[in-house]
Design brief:
Number of strands: 19
Distance between the termini: 17 Å
Strand content: 15-25%
Oligomer: single chain
CATH architecture of the largest domain: 3-Layer(bba) Sandwich
CATH topology of the largest domain: FAD/NAD(P)-binding domain
Length: 434
């Protein structure tokens, strides 16, 4: 039994080809957060979902599912809107875009950080300590603190740990930082410097192709628009929405958020209840925006740390795949942290005008608003202890909680697929041993 037809759940189902697999999905379409929606000839994802595939087997899988001709190979075009100008991303390697006073503050802070590092750094540190220790107080003040704390998650950086940084945080060398301060453009490093994206149809084509692969074999079934209501661990059975019947399982693969899974298990032991209470995540609102004219921007996405811009990031789908909009149009998205609630359309339009993402307010055909309850996991002091308590307890009961939200972690779409493969191997191995 697999709960959730996102990338992890579908990947697990694909690899469990010798097993009878039933997938349960609460939505009317597969993909989870890697799905696409269409309206009036425009296509939108659940914000930008680019394929950063470092492992060759993953590249071969995606190319086999989608076809070489329907995948664009792209080099990242990303910037940071700061001080009324676009600064090449990664910010820490391109501070030549700042005015000279701000640039000198960043350089002085970086030099001081270098001197401190020679004396040694603590083994464990908060995210705030990390950016100050690695890049200095100037860069922390100009970008990292306003973006990651005040705009992105709305959480003080001294509460955040650094486990999520592995593979996902651009780490320029000293030479790159200094060169970037003097005008050398450094935009070709970091995990997302190059990526793949469907030439048309949006990222939702990938889970749809994975579903088609699952359906091509015997022993596979999927129930759409069906939610998990309750899990009985003692009897290894679940109850689904719309039915009073119980369904038994030998192994349960859950890809829904870990907190949601635990809330569906009655009678949790006290130590599991205590651990569950410490799980934190941040919500996100996003808006899909259709334009009747092209966007003046050439970027794929833009970070916006300044407080007068209501969103923390925006992007232009059609700069990666022009067929995401009718000829002459454009499809955009903006991401908004949920701390302050909904943002009015005119405020979003004014901000897009300010950063040069649209040429005129009259270019906006429509704007759709959506909310993601679990957007980003909060890596605070309690997280590691909580998952080290919860996940083994679930596994002992035959429940494999996996994927980005099932493991309560951070990761790419490629990581989600690989996790599904790993769990499938574990389940298949346990079947052979019984």
């Amino acid at each position: 039994m697999v709960v959730g037809a996102g990338l992890t759940g579908l990947a697990a189902a694909m690899r469990l080809e010798r097993e009878r697999v039933v997938v349960v999905e609460r939505d009317e379409a597969v993909g989870g957060k890697a799905r696409s929606r269409g309206r009036d000839g425009f296509t939108f994802d659940v914000t930008g979902h680019w394929l950063h595939l470092r492992e060759e087997p993953l590249k071969e899988l995606v190319l086999g599912l989608l076809g070489e001709d329907n995948l664009a190979r792209l080099e990242r075009r990303a910037t940071v809107w700061l001080d009324g100008r676009m600064i090449t991303y990664p910010f820490q390697a391109n501070i030549h875009g700042l005015p000279w006073p701000s640039r000198l503050q960043c350089l002085a802070g970086f030099a001081a950080a270098r001197m401190r590092r020679r004396r040694g750094a603590p083994a464990e540190m908060s995210f705030e300590d990390f950016v100050v220790e690695r890049f200095g107080r100037g860069m922390a003040r100009h970008f990292f603190v306003p973006y990651y704390s005040k705009k992105f998650q709305g959480i003080a950086l001294d509460e955040l740990r650094t486990e999520w940084l592995k593979d996902y945080f651009p780490m320029p060398s000293t030479a790159q930082v200094l060169g970037g301060a003097l005008g050398v453009r450094n935009d070709r490093f970091g995990y997302n410097a190059r990526f793949l994206y469907p030439a048309q149809g949006g990222i939702g084509l990938l889970p749809e192709a994975m579903l088609a692969a699952c359906r091509s074999r015997d022993g596979f079934d999927i129930q759409m628009s069906t939610s998990l209501e309750e899990v009985d661990l003692d009897r290894r059975r679940i109850r689904l929405s719309g039915s009073a019947d119980w369904l038994g399982w030998r192994a349960l693969v859950s890809t829904i958020p870990l907190s949601d899974l635990l809330d569906r298990i009655p009678g949790l032991p006290e130590h599991i209840r205590d651990a569950r209470r410490t799980l934190r995540s941040s919500a996100m609102r996003y808006a899909n925006i259709a334009l009747r004219a092209p966007s003046p921007l050439r970027e794929h996405w833009v970070y916006t740390p300044e407080p007068d811009i209501p969103f923390y990031r925006m992007g232009v789908y059609t700069n990666a795949a022009p067929r995401m909009a009718p000829p002459g149009g454009a499809s955009l998205w903006v991401e908004i942290a949920d701390q302050k609630g909904p943002v009015a359309d005119p405020d979003i339009v004014d901000a897009l005008l300010k950063i040069g993402a649209i040429g005129s307010a009259a270019d906006v055909l429509f704007m759709e608003h959506h909310k993601v309850d679990h957007a980003y996991i909060v890596f605070d002091d309690a997280r590691e202890k909580a998952i080290d308590t919860i996940l083994p307890w679930l596994a002992e009961a035959g429940v494999h909680s996996c994927g980005r939200y099932g493991r309560w972690t951070y990761g790419s779409m490629g990581d989600a697929i690989l996790d599904g493969f790993s769990v499938a191997a574990l389940v298949a191995g346990s079947a052979e041993n019984t």
